[in-house]
Amino acid sequence: MGKTVLVTGAARQLGGRFVRHIQREPEVGRVVAVDARPPVRSLGEAEFVRADIRKPAIAAVLAEHSVDTVVHLDVHDTPATPGGGGRYGVKEVNVLGTLQLLGACQRIPGLSRVIVRSSTAIYGGGPRDPAVFGEGTPPTPSVVATGFARDVAEIEEYVRGFARRRPDVAVTVLRFAHILGPLAESQMAAYLRLPVLPTLVGYDPRLQFIHEDDVLEVLGRAVSAPDRAGGLTAGTFNVAGDGVLALSQAARRLGRPMVPVLPPLAAWLGSGLRALGVNGISAEQLRSLVHGRVVRTGRLREALGRPLEYSTAEAFADFAAAHGPGLLPPTALARGVDRIEEALRRG
Predict the structure, then answer these.
(1) For the CA atoms of the chain, what is the radius of gyration?
(2) What are 133-155's pLDDT values in tens digits?
(3) Burial of 185 by CB count in 10 Å (0-12 exposed, 13-18 middle, 19+ buried)?
(4) Cα 189 to Cα 8, 22, 290, distances in angstroms
(5) Which entry of 110, 153, 236, 241 is 20 to 30 Å from 139 by CA?
(6) Whole-prediction pTM value?
(7) C-beta of residue 58 within 8 angstroms of C-beta of residue 34
(8) Do 15 and 38 contact (CB within 8 A), yes or no?
(9) Distance of alpha carbon 21 from the chain centroid
(10) What is d(CA 319, CA 241) in angstroms, rounded to the nearest whole number?
(11) Are 2 and 28 in contact (CB under 8 A)?
(12) 52-90: per-residue pLDDT in tens?
């Protein structure tokens, strides 16, 4: 019959795409899609179950469908939930939802594998941090004290506890960089879609991206091929495209003008714009754009046997093709600079 895979967060764009993606794997016989709200996109032949992972009823869903593989994607990096809940609602879904789900998984005897979405935000990004983070780099307490970074730190702590209590279950944690692509719904994607990009004066953070198609590929390898070449075994993996882009480079390639903001005003600006309904910017988002972060992905490359299809620059280019050009199109700006240069040369 193949694996019975339960996917949380199926009503969101990434979760829904993965539900459709994993149905094509020959090792998968059945997919159970779970979310607290109904999906707006087709989930193919998957069975949708409307359930809230924060409620104890999720244990009954796991038992009723004899689930052997759980893919936990219901982890939000946005300052509000899709249903309109604020930061408290996001934390409830991220932390309490994960805790309840793992508690339910602990009571399922036939469970063999748990895959959890995490984030490279767990490393923080301070002036004294390493230039490049590896999977063994401990989180920075001062940076992960609040917000999404703190959420993923708590999530991974609960995951480690679950792995100790259920050593018979293979647990894989995937720390994704900023997810981009034509359809991406990440907080970074929302920020880069703004017509003008607020930045902090004096800082040009280093950024890494992962294409949404590569996210599906990595998740699929973790589910369908953990015990053969090209599959992901138990453990923690950084997942990011090769290379790095500075925020200033990204802005130029998008054609988005940058507006520098003094650091003391960042929290006020982020909160004010968020209150006005401007998506893509928050105080937490501006704080994350101070130093940025870069991670090593050698463990992932070794497991897959090859690099990801998209580098950081290529993932960004695909995003830019769908959402650019902005107010300062790169081609038009280049023509203007060429005309000025020609005029100066002629005196």
Answers:
(1) 21
(2) 999 988 765 555 568 889 999 99
(3) middle
(4) 22, 24, 17
(5) 241
(6) 0.91
(7) yes
(8) no
(9) 17
(10) 14
(11) yes
(12) 999 999 999 999 999 999 999 999 887 766 666 677 888
